Amino acid sequence: MKCENCGAEIPKGDLYCKVCGWEVRLVPDYITVESMMSEKQLKEKKKLEEQRARRLAAEEEARKKKPKLWVLELKFLLFAGLTAAFSALIIHQIDASNRSSYVYQRNAAQRALEREDYETAAGYAQRAENLKPDAEGIQILKAQILDGEGKSDQAVDLLKGLIEKNAHDYDAYQVLISILERRGQADRISDLVKKSGSERLKKKYAAYFTDRPEFSLISGIYPPDTEIRLTAKNANIYYTTDLTTPTDKSKLYTGSPIPLKNGTKTTVKAVAINKKGVSSEVVTAVYTLKSVNPDPPVIRPDSGSYRAGTEKIEVVIPEGCTVYYVIDGTPTKGTGTVYTQPVKMPEGTHIFSAIVQDIEGHISDVTSRTYKVS
Fold first, then answer.
1. Phi, psi (deg, nearest 5) at residue 193
2. Given Cys at both, which of 86, 95, 113, 298 links 121, Cβ 3.0 to 4.6 Å?
């Protein structure tokens, strides 16, 4: 190897030139730092190229395996078309089934009614009726639809017809009553409940049913100054004494006795009206206040022929009264004898007469018996 400085030959293994003292380089003279750097860059470049080549190869392989977009679109459209056709077929079959199903049509009408789509509800209800004209409930549903459409008069007529056919159609009653409630026709509800004869309806709609008022005394003849009172449950009472029919414009009964005139006949008419304005039946009673004589006395035995000492005369004494009697005369309070026990029947032919006097001094007619005793 030669010295780079002086060109002298340097023996192998020496580290310095013996001629000029120049340090011997260990790197061969043909390898420079620049060349060493280029080689490194080349290796890195080659490595990058190899990586890129592998990536491109992988992408190409993936591209070959991946189906083309238009093929996917075609498959999707084909699948979507088949699905739509199948769905349409199923829907058609379901629709056909629903159109022939009374239950479906009725339920669909009910749902439409609940959302106040009366036109749609009417269509479903009509189809349901066509399928089962005599089915229970469809006529009631039609009445509800008519009412929702503002045709409440038609609805009422339809429901009344149903009730006339079946007096126990509870649902028809309820729908009809709900319409009458909304229209404020309380009296009609009361009449309807009464005519139904249904205790169930009467109990449910008790607020629309008013019991008629009750009189403290029935019609009849009574002593002077007799008092008449009225009672009713949960209702006001109105009454008249001039033969007119009482209303809520008539005289209100406040609990005091109704004034009656002595010696005349008075007709009292009364009606009870509850908080909803429902009127009861009008009740009538006729009273006559006058002095009332007690009934004639009952005398036993009857008139006839009897043996002496075998019979006694008995008189029935009314409670709270006094009996006066005479033999062969006309009894009065002043002339008669007070009867206290059976009287011995006298011999011969005689007339036994008696009267009754009450605590007010009223005297009955005379009762007489003729006895022939021998």
1. -65, -40
2. 113
